Give the backbone structure.
Amino acid sequence: MVTCKSGYDPREDSILLERQVRLHAKGKVLDMGTGSGIQAIAATQNSRVISVLATDVQKGVINYCKKCIQNPKIKFVQSDLFEKVKGKFDAIIFNPPYLPQELKLRDLTIEGGKKGYEVIERFLNEVNYYLNPNGIILMVFSSLTKKEKVGEFIKNNLLEFQELEKVHIFFEDIYVYLLKKNEFLKKLESKGISNIKYLAKGHRGLLFTGIYKGKKVTIKTKNPQSTAVGRIENEAKWIKRLNKHNIGPKLSFAGDNYFVYEYIDGDFIINYIEKSNKNNIKKIIKQIFNQMFVLDKLKIDKEEMHHPLKHVIISKNKPYLIDFERTHHSPNPKNVTQFCQFLISTSQLLKNKKIEIIKDDIIKSAKVYKSSPNIANFKKIVDLV
Ligand SMILES: C[S@@+](CC[C@H](N)C(=O)[O-])C[C@H]1O[C@@H](n2cnc3c(N)ncnc32)[C@H](O)[C@@H]1O
């Protein structure tokens, strides 16, 4: 039986957030983790609000709300974060469970996971898809949640924040943040890329994935911490050029300080060697050599091919060179010879796969090729594998 006593009676954090909801809620609202329904009700009291979808992972909470809150503007749905949510919203409100878990069994109402920030991380990784371009997120959390981590998730998801409130209560600070999409995210979305998610960070670049024209793409932009100048433009230029020679992932388009290219779903070279059989590895090595030879002929140095651990991805038995940050013209490119060095350094792993790399022979042929980089000398190297 449902009584009109909620699963989470409003606390200090609820009251702080509620005040901001009254001020900022607008249009179509999503109240995530509605609990007592306090935020949903506050939202409807703002005349700019059209409707509220209030969700909660706990069935008991939704049963309580449906029975005890009769408000024509609010609809209640049970959902684990965005699982059952459809559509886009102008304001998304979340007072998440943000405390670190203390006992074996997690209290879903207040504990976000072992570290405390896990539910927030999942929420921020998905929220963009459900937020209109000029939409806002109102979120509350505590100093016990690790503010730097929350900041990292915000940045990684191309959001920006404003601290609306900070209040010290007993042993913690409670923060209320207003989050918005940053200009870069809005630009990417306006170009038709959706589902943009953080992928990885390098020294110079930040990588995101997204969906563009129905296909998964990678978006590369400058890592704000990098002081390097013009690398992103350089890389986009090389990918475009090398695509004509069937090298690299296909470039979709490039813009100011970013570019978008085909997402390659596969294994980095060492993982591929570990996983694959002798024949397939040999085929891949030959294909990489061919690409190295094309680069040498074009007088282009990719660099780092003696250590291409994160520079080659193998997908559907085809190797894709990635990461052209340091690519440049050179009268004496070293792609083939550097790849020889890599094979020598991986000879033990290759030997485990019954591929014999005879160091002295490779070095000898590489030297000959270096002084005379023609097809005949190139073939002599490849034949050694
Ligand atoms: C701290 S309470 C906040 C309740 C209310 N919004 C308020 O401000 O007082 C957190 C609420 O989030 C819900 N919740 C926890 N994990 C969730 C998830 N993965 N998806 C949706 N709701 C979740 C809990 O059931 C709980 O009702």
Remarks:
- The domain at 267-383 is CATH 1.10.510 (Transferase(Phosphotransferase); domain 1).
- Residues 278-297 form the longest helix (20 residues).
- The chain has 13 helices and 19 strands.
- The two ends are 74 Å apart (CA to CA).
